[in-house]
Amino acid sequence: MSLTVPPTLLEAAERGPVTDAEFLACVRESLPYAWETVSRVVDDLDASGAERADNLVPPPTETERGQLLRALASDAIRAGLERHFGVRLAFQNCHRVAAFRPAAVESAAYREFVSPRGQLLNQSPELRNC
């Protein structure tokens, strides 16, 4: 299961749309490692002034790895994170999440990161089972 949904939020969703704030609170509580990783990458992006910042540190355990995979594999969660943080997220392997400034999605750096070549160059024997 991707998210642990409180009964009140599930009831609200059954009645109709929920707000981003409600949804993202659920994401933050359910996937704390993923939330912290994305937050840190966005903080690095803001501090650097660069067009991209990314996480190069593998998750410490399979639990954290699973949280990051679930967060970035879900269109709704990923889009919610992008709206909340005001970035475009890109993902390689089991841990390499990058945050790009919205204006940078047309940049060579973004195109390279999301390219087949970029994916292949980010492979290593240590990451084959992630």
What can you tell me about this protein's structure?
The chain is built from 7 helices and 3 strands. With 130 residues, it is mainly α. It has one domain. The chain has a 3-stranded antiparallel sheet with strand order 1-3-2. The longest helix is centred in the N-terminal third of the chain and has 17 residues, at 32-48. The two termini are 18 Å apart. The model has no long low-confidence stretch (mean pLDDT 89).
Termini separation: 18 Å
Query: How many individual domains?
Result: 1
Structural class: mainly alpha
**Which outline best applies?**
globular
Give the DSSP E fraction (strand runs of 2 or more residues): 5-15%
Number of helices: 7
Strand order of the largest sheet: 1-3-2
Mean pLDDT equals 89
Query: Rounded to an integer, what's the Rg over CA atoms?
Result: 15 Å
Biggest sheet details: 3 strands, antiparallel
Helix content: 55-70%
Q: What's the helix-strand series?
A: HHHEHHEEHH
Low-confidence stretches: none
Total strands: the figure is: 3
Pfam families: KH_NucS_shadow
